[in-house]
Structure formats: C-alpha cells, structure tokens
Amino acid sequence: MPLDLNNYKNIIFDFGGVIINIDYNLTTAAFQELGLSNFDKLFSQARQNQLFDLYEKGQITSHEFRTELRSAFNMKPSAELVTNAWNAMLLDLPHERLDLLEKLKSTHRTFLLSNTNELHIEAIFSALEKNMGIPDLSVYFEKMYFSYKVKMRKPDAEIFRLVLKENGLQAKETLFIDDSPQHIEAAKRLGIQTYLLDVTKESILDIFG
To answer: What CATH number is given for 24-89 in this structure?
Structure first.
C-alpha cells in the first residue's frame, strides 16, 4: 500500500539499494576472480571488516584503502583492477526513480543519507555525467550526506542527529527510508518515522504509488 505523503514534511532517503541498485555479490565474485578467495569473509553488508568501516567514515584515503586491499593478495593486482572490483557492486540508477525524486522535492524537503565511500561516489557521478548529462544528484535533494564526508555512519545516532539539527527537522515529521533493519531501528529510537524497504519485493516507486 502506498504511503500517505500528507503524514510527512521531510523525507530522508538511503542511497544503495533504495535509489541505486547494488549487488554485493558481484564485488565478492570480482575479488575472488582476482585471487582473493576469502573476500566474502572480509566484507559483508551486515558486518564489515574495520578497513571498510574506516574507509566509509573517511578516516583513510582511497589510496590507503586500495593499498590495504592489495596487501591481502599473494599476487598483487593493479590499483585499477582493485578499484574495478570494488565498484562491481554498483548497478543501474533507474530514470523512473529520479523522476520520482524530482516530483517529491516539489512537495517535500528531501535529503540523501548514505554510508558510502569516495570510490563509489566518483564512479556513480561519473556514470551520471556520461549517461544522463548531470554531474551529481544534488538537483534532487536539499542536501546530501555521505558518511565518508561527514566522518559518521549509520546506524550511529550522531549522523541522524546531524541531519535533523542542521536542517531544523522535527523527527516526528520526518520519514526515513532504508533497506537495512539496523539503520531503521536507530532512526526509530530518535522518534523518526521509518519505512524498511524490502528490495527483493519492492522499490520506492511502489511505496509512493
């Protein structure tokens, strides 16, 4: 059943899985093909190795991140191959979702809140420029919050408080959409209204009718 937009003044969107399609298994497979057979143990959506946490919070550079990844290999692949494998999880960004975001921005205050990293954002924005002629997603949101830039990440309460405080948002008037249960629960504890998107069954096009 579509959500009633009259219940919210503000909408905060997650990025990966909610707006852009992703498949973590493709990155695992790409690293395994390069010779890192235990990559799936190093990284998963639910539980990340400290290296990935540090990178998502902007506490290490892309160069340092790639160097650490390459050190896990017996025969070290090039930085370019490591970057390509890391970005393999990034899939398409459907035009229809962007059309929806544009429509919602005309009636609500909309924000992007993503646990992400520099290499992924560079790849996504480069593809947007090449395929759609737009340099980034700022046209669709009042403000975008990327974990590696603000040095915080979900599900920590501080990143939700940052978005609310910087923009003068009331939690009870704000809807947060994410596909990770732990992020949804963190937002709920702050009084934010939430919707857990089951990406195996639905998209934001379904929940907004």
So the answer is: 1.10.150.240
The DSSP-derived string for 19-58 is: TB-B-HHHHHHHHHHHT-TTHHHH--SSS--HHHHHHHTT
CATH class of 5-21+92-207: alpha beta
Q: Strand pairing partners for 145?
A: 113
Beta strands in the chain (DSSP E): 10-13, 109-114, 143-146, 174-178, 193-196
What is the domain partition of the chain in residue ranges? 5-21+92-207, 24-89
**CA 91 – CA 23 distance, rounded (Å):** 7
Which tens digits make up the pLDDT trace of 76-113? Answer: 899 999 999 999 999 999 999 999 999 999 999 999 99
Write the pLDDT tens digit of every residue in 2-18.
899 999 999 999 999 99
- What is residue 59's DSSP assignment? S
CA distance 44 to 162: 26
